[in-house]
Give the backbone structure.
Amino acid sequence: MATSFEILYLGTGPDIDPSEGNDSSENAGALVGLTFGSAESPLAFNAQHTFSPVGYSDDDPTMHDANNSVASDTFSIDGDPPQTCDSLGLYNATITCTDGTLDATITAVVFQESNGNLYLAPELSANSDYYAVTAAPIESITFDSVAAGTQVNLIADRQSSDFLCSEVRTRLLTPGGERPVSTITPGDRIVTADHGAQPVHWVWRTDDLWTRDSNPEEPIRFAPGALGAGLPHRALIVSP
């Protein structure tokens, strides 16, 4: 748990809290039906940022009030000048992941700066929504309905979530079918393009390649057909 954490930038949207000074996001429904991110511009590859607190309402370090009426409710994104926490919404949402391994329905915590920028916040605990949004890089999110339009504050102490990828899910073809690359071990056989099934002699992995702080380069995504007709046949994600 942490008060500084990774968030996912969704884009600039309609003001979900046009009436300031209260605890309601009375225009929360304006996001319903909207989709942020696409196959051409996946959210996870260009939108992960770091949220750091600057000031709290009434010096309460446990929350950021979402009423845009107290100047001290501020935070910084990637060390930029402070922004004010304007509003908060809770949505039933559908996420689509870049590698085709997961489409999931989650309850999404979304907050908005006073300038209109929208962000997906990490969960408060390692619940099913937490595992869904960190299972594979998120391509897009669609807001299906409002789960709660009245949210008093953004709880400050949240899970540390890597929206880029917490587990590599690129799949390799084996004699028994496709398997996530993260499950491949030495001795397993994978199907090659020109010599049939061959054994894996060595496996190497490091979290550093997928951690923004240690390596600023993003994962590389090959679109279907980018390497030739039918190659790859689905989006292929590899480390730099």
